[in-house]
Amino acid sequence: MKTRSFLFLTILMVLFGAYPVFDSSVANAAQTNTLSGEIPIGAVWSLTGDAAVYGPSQKNASELAAEQINKSGMLGAAKIKLITEDDRSTKEGAITAFDKLIKEYKVVAILGPTLSNSAKAADPIAQAAKVPVLAVSNTAGGIVEMGDFIFRDSLPEMLVQPNTIKQTKNKFGYKKVAILYGNDDVFTKGGYDAFKKALDDQGIKILATETFNKKDSDFSAQLTKIKGLKPDAIIVSALAEEAASIMSQARQLGIPASVPIIGGNGFNSPKLAQLAGPAAEGAITGAAWLITNDTPGNKAFVEAYHKKYGANPDQFAAQAYAGVYILADAIKTAGSSNPVAIRDAMAKIKNLDTVLGKFSFDSRREPVHAPVVQIIKNGQFVLFK
Amino acid sequence: MSDLPQQLINGLWQGAALALFAMGYTLVFGVLDIINLAQGATYMWGAFFAFLCVTKLNWPIWYAIPAAMVGAGFLAVLLDRLAFKPLRSLTSGGLVLWAGFIVFLLGAVGNLSQDIKWVTIVSGALIMLGGFVLDYRSGKPLRTREVPHLAPIISSIGATFILVSLAISQFGAQVSRFPPNLFPVKPYNVTAEAVISPIQVLVLGLSLGLMIILSFLINRTQMGRAIRAIAWSERTSRLLGINVDYVIAQTFFISGALAGAAGVLLGLAFNRLEPNMGGEVELAGLTVIIVGGMGSIGGAAIAAFLVGMIRVLSVAYIDSSFRDAFVFGLLILVLLLRPSGIFGRSKTVRA
Amino acid sequence: MFEFLSNNISTINFVLINISLGLSIYITLATGLLSLANAGFMAIGAYTVAIIQTQTHIPFSFGFVMAIALGVTLALPIGIVALGLRDIYLAIATLGFGEIVRIIALNGDKVVRLFSTNKDVIVFNGAEGITLAYKTPTIIFGLPDTTWPILIYCLVAIYILATLHNSRYGRILASIRQDETAASTLGINVARYKLFAFVLGSAIAAGAGALGAPIVRVVDPHNYVFSRGVDILAYAVLGGMTHWVGPILGATVLTSLPEALRFLKDQRDIVNGLIIMLSIIYLPAGLADPRVWTIPRKLFALLGSMRSSARNDSKGL
Hints:
The complex is a heterotrimer.
Chain A (H helix, E strand, L loop, with lengths): L1 H16 L20 E8 L9 H18 L6 E8 L4 H13 L5 E3 L4 H14 L3 E3 L14 E3 L4 H16 L3 E7 L3 H16 L3 E8 L7 H10 L3 E5 L2 H13 L8 E3 L6 H7 L7 E4 L10 H12 L5 H20 L4 H9 L4 E3 L2 E5 L5 E2 L3 E6 L2 E4 L2
Chain B lengths: L3 H29 L6 H18 L4 H28 E2 L1 H18 L4 H24 L5 E2 L6 H21 L16 E2 L5 E2 L1 H23 L1 H11 L1 H6 L4 H27 L6 H16 L4 H21 L5 H15 L9 H4 L1
Antiparallel strand pairs in B: 1-2, 3-4
Chain C lengths: L1 H6 L1 H21 L8 H18 L4 H23 L4 H29 L14 E2 L7 E2 L2 E2 L2 H20 L1 H11 L1 H6 L4 H27 L1 E2 L6 H14 L5 H16 L7 H15 L7 H27 L1
Antiparallel strand pairs in C: 1-4, 2-3
Helix pairs in contact in C: 2-6, 2-9, 2-10, 2-11, 3-4, 3-5, 3-9, 4-9, 6-7, 6-9, 7-9, 10-11
């Protein structure tokens, strides 16, 4: 018996002793009432794992924004210190990252995380600690409902897609459509739910609802079935990579270009036209941001991003970039780096100039700005008219 | 029902794509009785080798495909020496190889300045080469060993992690594509409604051709005889004077080259290259080699077409959400009714 | 110590859950079975708890019991059918089982709606999964009330497996691992003991999944995919498959490693892969191998002898 209790003790020691103690030399500038020194802001992105496609552009854009803000002296003597953590595209990763940012780095606000389900797992930690969270890419339902410290600047699909369906229906007058969506991904599933509701509201007939899995590369079976039903339009809720394959294969299977392919936020990436080439012509997407927007600072943002990272920003980048500016504005208005004060200032933001357009939060902390509908012409996104 | 001809073509083509991947997979499985889960990573690297040839060296795709096959073949041999050989026997050469590999990785992903980076990569590669030669020349292992029979699977899982992360660090996690117009895209009309694209024809033809060549290699040549002897009994083969290590290296080379060919062709056909592309075919490939029967190349091919058809027809006539459930249902059914696969010989006959 | 505990409580939670999962695969591995169904059983446990909590008002403890009961009920027939398969085939059959569980979780609502009068009923909620309500944990004796059940569960699992390890049962299981034929010639009912190990492992995994649900709070199919099964396997492999200390060490190291390796950022996966490969090649019995623990002593001895020989040399000069 003695040996066994000894073993238990050893295990406990291993459990609690195996962690390296991190030095928390980061400035603890928080909780003071004057703006000076470094203000720690956390950012949780999916830099590795399944969602590693989105995280890096969010990281790039947020770092660009923080750099510009610090250079411009927008916050006077104070500087933003962005602390980026990787959640490995997992809920566990997001939870530990939030824990660490709040308890160890004492951040005053958190941007992210990239994925909606990670947000649902991790945001309540910040809510309980009274640290504001600004989601910049969560489009699913049930995000801001988690509490009064949770905000988002990413237009949920439910706000974007009714507008898309209305505008395209007016133009094309389609009556029956087929839907193809990724059913194992929260982002694309949310897009599907929004489209379905909008289509039902407009009284458009849905001929078939087909699904695929993330990372599928062959959609010919689903598309052949859709082709046989002869829809007037095809609604696709997919991420840019899958959407590109879907478009190439649809046109290859002989679905005529007169049948438009309409998609959601996931389409809104320069990669779509790049990957699908000529097959992407005429693809329509409802989105929160257009690369050629004439919103304040948008052109400068696209240029600065391109100069620094050698690629065009996508919507994820734009929303992350706007997110840092929204936080900075709230900190400036609050005149303090107290998380609660920042939260209160953020809730009052109205008609702020951002790359997304005139930006406000409504009473539920949801973003308010006009969604756009865009179409690919000559390999470029332009406004759909 | 007017979709049927097109759906059959879709199924045939999915089957051909799977067969191309599964042939090399089942070869290693049949010879060494190990499941090389890093086959998917080899497949991915094959595609990226061709991608590098086309984009960086401006080679035409016709040179890039064989180059990628050779590259992926050597990668598979290297994998054998790093991940599987040390489980069979430890040699000093193997240790040197590992040391070189770690130096190489340090150079490839470490945060080094540009000059030091290349010096590190090259010296790592040279140490690896030295280890390779040393490993090959020293007949006598430090010790032969008994490891848990699950060790190779686990070791190949580790190798997959490394190979995929290496690709992410070099090419990024996002999807890349071959430059356009490498290959004609205008589809042929089979019937009025059904079409097939040139690359699909190429994949169909190549997978049939490679299948025949591989069967010939295994059944009719001296090398094939040696491979079959090792599959039967490694110990006996050694006693008969077969250079077991060399033949195993050959087997891995062939298997890797097939995976590489599959990577390039499917990368071209779907127009997407990404570091995680191996994961998608991995599970389907596993199903195929089990259903086909261990080490049976013909069986794998037929199983691949079967799986392709099931996937397509379940989408066409049942529900696309349950597509994979049918595939795994088939897998479990075959395992329960005929564990050695539809075309496999049972273990007692084989060994 | 207290500050350290509270700062890292979520990592500690995950370490404890992963230790339980590591133990669940250890018991099958110790019998010589490679079953990759653990992620599937974990999903069954988590979904049971989550569905009971969202659809009814039955308390969590009942859901937990139900989760384990369901795990056992499903493991029995699967075990009876699948355990006749040889090692690799068993691995793949159980892998297929895991995938089917995932597909059912993803499309479960379609099945439910077939039998339900309410055509819009949401039980599984597809890819979004089930979100459980957040409760601010209260601290009891220095640990949050969410951590205590996992800690107790983990200790109970360790206790059971440790007792088993030293008992006649444990020796029989080990004999099956070492030589199944020899064991059966000695009159051991191999099939029965294999089934016992499989069911025990599945039950532990289902329980761990159930207890993990309130910690992660979002139960979605993506939590329980193939790669999760591989992670669980890696715990047992790195730690060692022949002694119950193995999975404890393995799970602790591999779960805290990504946190400890955060400074490596993107290269973390490479280091992870290297650890798995090097440990299976050069430490086939895992970290729990007694020989590993003598390495530092040997090193010291070696250093000591070098130093003394160096001293002798200088004397010579």
